[in-house]
Write a structure and sequence with these properties.
The protein is mainly α and 82 residues long. The chain has 3 helices and no strands.
């Protein structure tokens, strides 16, 4: 019984150490590096807050679809993909 508890504790320590060793401390690896691209951020803000070319009686779903299309446009312009 005690040997299985020791084996489990050792496995938990090894797993925790492996997880901590594999974690990256670089802030860019967290996926926020696009914030440094000011033109891209401005493009996103334009499409997120602007209602230009939006019909006056557009539903919430239509507005969301237009905003998503704007986000995809910005991705294509600055990163070459959707």
């Amino acid at each position: 019984m005690t040997s299985s508890i020791r084996l489990f504790a050792a496995a938990a320590i090894v797993a925790t150490a492996g997880l901590l060793a594999s974690a990256s401390t670089s802030p860019a690896s967290a996926g926020w590096d696009w914030l440094g691209n000011k033109n891209y951020v401005n493009c996103l803000q334009l499409f997120a807050s602007g209602d230009f070319l939006m019909p006056a009686n557009a539903s919430r779903a239509q507005r969301a679809a237009r905003h998503e299309a704007g986000r995809r446009y910005c991705n294509r312009q600055y990163y070459g993909h959707d």
